[in-house]
Please model this.
Amino acid sequence: MRTIEEIKAEKQAKEEEARKKWLEKEKADEEANRYDAKDFYFLTENFRPADYDEKDLFDAVSIADKMPWKNPDEIDWFGVSTKLYFSDVICTGQNGKYIEFRTDDNAIHKIMKISGRSGLKGSEKVRVYYRISKEPLLEWNVKAIKKRQ
Model:
């Protein structure tokens, strides 16, 4: 039979282990979301690169076309079906609040909404971070544009 002190010590050890795991997770998350703003042409507030999955733009368009409206597995805080992706693309130009990108192989072009000036010139190779949402219409929003070598 275990004593009260042994039970308390075991509970304290478990709590300390859980705290240690939480701190490690927080540190890893912080490291994954660290970036140098000088590497970006455009950034939105609270940008967290680790939240985005890499996806070829052609594949992202295909996925977006099949996105269900109000899918409970893909709903954000506001009840909107969303996807967060990044793709390596070529910028073909910006016209006001809209910016156009194409894949390196010229397989597909996509126009996305942007909330500011990017400063990009045509034919610049970039990595674009974007949010696809469906409520009920499909919308593509640029969240960041990173320089690409």
